[in-house]
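Quick question about two entries, pasted in order.
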Amino acid sequence: MIRAVLLLVQGLVAITSIAGGLVMAVGSWPGVDKSGLPPGLQLPVEYLNGSPFNTYLVPGLLLMVIVGGLHSLAFVLLLRRIALASLASAAAGYSILVWIFVQMALIPFSALQAVYFGAGLAEVGLLLLLLGVASPHPATDTGVQAGPLGPVGNRKAAVGSRHDRQEHSARGRST
């Protein structure tokens, strides 16, 4: 279920990022008649004041290639259950968060920024749940050790952790 929701969010962000980046880039090309675009798709040039860009070409390409591309890659890797899916999913989730942070610093607030920021947070949270780092269940008084992200249970310490090294060196001395 968690994987399916993560795939859904990644797919939606991939499609809308590629489409949005395409509209931004194509609308910036010289000679393109912008009057044919619906008013909702015509981006005000004033939004670029104070930014390093004078057209929407570069931001559109960045949105399409980096955010849309990472989300597309993460979607395909997660769909096929390829080992790098977790890394790609994390990169995709953080890419939309960084995109929205930068956007909010440069242009006036839009409700879409809140929606896509929420999508990025959802992606990172779903990935943590999928990896078992976070738990959807609150810690209880059943003797389960509660970690900072939820119940840890009877998991062994990670190989190479300080606890694992101490345990290993103690075993080595006793034999």
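Here is the second entry:
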Amino acid sequence: MPKNQNGQNSSQVSCVAQAFDGYKGGEEMPLASYATLLGIYNTAFAALLLAANNSKRQLPERVGYADLMLLGVATYELSRIIAKDRVTSPLRAPFTEYVEPAGESEVKEKVRGRGMQRAIGDLVTCPYCLSPWVGAALTFGLVFRPRAARLVMGTFAAAAISGFLLQATDAIKEEKK
């Protein structure tokens, strides 16, 4: 079989390239880099499951309602802080360009770069995209260090509730004008 310059089977490479050609998106959609990030996420998730199993920790049969609510609210808030907060912009700076303010202590940023730089930029500027990563980290915190995880989740849940109340207060003040 003919090999390409990287030593790969050229017919297999061509077949894979053709499979993605119809998707379009070009530079805006670095599919290979997205696939790499998916692989990293799944590998990390599997490694944490294996580590939990090897540590003889019992995985819960189900997640209790209180933990699920705490986990959901904390995941929402931490994902939003990572993706949008002005103070966390140094974490995103290698992958983004500042555009303008976007509300209370939030910023609008434009993803920059190509390949993996762009893929990571897409990930770290999107609270929806980050939430499985953050949710998994917090969930495994519950497995390995439940007390500490609940403390961390409680902190971010309190921040989310506070943010909601602050916005509600501002809306009421605005309505009275």
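Reply: The helical segments are 10-21, 31-54, 65-84, 89-92, 115-124, 127-144, 146-176. The longest strand covers residues 96-101. Hope that helps.
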